[in-house]
Amino acid sequence: MSYNTSRFVQLKPVPFVASTTDLAIYHKVLRKEVPLLGMDGKNATSINGSRDSVGRISVYSYYAIKKYYEISNHCETMAYWLDEELPAVLQTLSPKEECVRVLAVGPGNEVIDTTILRCVREWVATLKPEMKSRSVYCQFVEPMEDVSQLYERYKALLGKKRAVEINMEWSTLTPDEYKGTYEHGIHCDSKFHVVHLIQSIYYVRDLENTILFHYMHALKPGGLLLMSVNSGDNARARLLEKFSSGRFSRRASDVTEILDKHNIRYTRINIPVTANITEVFDEDSELGKVLLDYLSSAIKFRERAPGHLLDAALFHFKTPESCFQRRGERKTEILVKMGFDLIVIRKSHIPINGE
Ligand SMILES: C[S@@+](CC[C@H](N)C(=O)[O-])C[C@H]1O[C@@H](n2cnc3c(N)ncnc32)[C@H](O)[C@@H]1O
């Protein structure tokens, strides 16, 4: 595979064109040509498993994730944690360079990734004069979003004139392709003080390689690596565990097992989330169908799952273990218990094998 550096952009609007394969998958889904994915374990492909030739997840999967974000407090709770806790974590870094470098993999939804950048900027502004850092550079790796629009949104959210300047560069590569650029010697000298993959490691082909690549090659000694991954004990993870013979979605323990294997020290923080999935129980609700696809990790689940599986999934989400119920204005609302783990890693200053 060849890696085209022209897909890296610097502050330039780049038109977003969904790949033809993406669109083909989406239309097939709409025409119900794609078999029911997952659930019975025979067609062991998850909603995130439908990909185009360069490994981008399908437009529909991306849409379903966004809808889930809209009905949950996922972004707010994560942004709250970052605002409260990240400043103290950043204080432990001691950059020697003029510019603090950040690598943001899968920024997509801007709420979380701008919060990280804002915290980094505020921290740089407090650095003592003997630490020379005065500006921030952020490399974004984002294959799905219209990066020109994202850039505008980031610019608006981060404000204009500030004491600490932020320069942003956008790449429309997938994380796997971006990693490939190092392997092909393109970015092999690019190292970062802060690297984060927030809810984006589900889509990489080789989890172990990806984690080691970011830790060993992309991160500077003494740098900070942040990853967030769904926890294994939320209602969705338990459903997938119960009804599928395969594992459909990566979870935090998959990451920590790899870190343990390589003796990489980390802190793991559980962040509980609730999502209002009341619509899922309304068989005519389009939003409910999309949310059910996300929760079941299967495309067109309501229409195409065998009746007993649909009933079992709906029952699962209504149990006290999975949800809270509250009185809404028109009907009882179902708030499902979700959550993810944030994994925080400080790289040691001592080089390890392979660096
Ligand atoms: C669930 S969103 C997370 C967005 C943001 N970091 C957040 O936490 O709100 C996943 C992000 O990973 C990106 N991504 C990573 N790998 C991808 C792949 N192979 N195909 C498509 N998108 C991918 C998506 O574009 C998206 O921005």
Give a verbal description of the structure:
With 355 residues, the chain is α/β, with parallel strands linked by helices. It has one domain: Vaccinia Virus protein VP39 (Rossmann fold, 3-Layer(aba) Sandwich), CATH 3.40.50. It is built from twelve helices and nine strands. Strands 1, 2, 3, 4, 5, 6, 7, 8 and 9 form a nine-stranded mixed β-sheet that branches. α3 (74-91) runs parallel beside α4 (110-125), α4 (110-125) packs across α5 and α8 packs antiparallel against α12. It is globular and about 65 Å long. The protein starts with 7 loop residues before the first strand and ends in a 9-residue tail after the last strand. Mean pLDDT is 80; it is low at 1-48. The structure holds S-adenosylmethionine.
Cofactors, ions, other ligands: S-adenosylmethionine
Tell me, briefly, the overall form.
Answer: globular
How large a portion of the residues is in β-strands, by DSSP E? 15-25%
**Strand count:** 9
What order do the helices and strands follow?
A: EHHHEHEHEHEHEHHEHHHEE
Multimeric status of the protein: single chain
Q: Round the Cα radius of gyration to an integer and report it.
A: 21 Å
Percent of residues in helices: 25-40%
Low-confidence region ranges: 1-48
CATH class assignment: Alpha Beta
What structural category characterises the helix and strand content? Answer: alpha/beta
Largest sheet: 9 strands, mixed
Please work out how many helical segments DSSP would assign: 12
Q: Under CATH, the topology is which? A: Rossmann fold
Q: What is the total number of structural domains?
A: 1
What is the averaged pLDDT score? 80
What is the rounded distance between the termini? 24 Å
Assigned CATH architecture: 3-Layer(aba) Sandwich
Q: CATH homologous superfamily name? A: Vaccinia Virus protein VP39
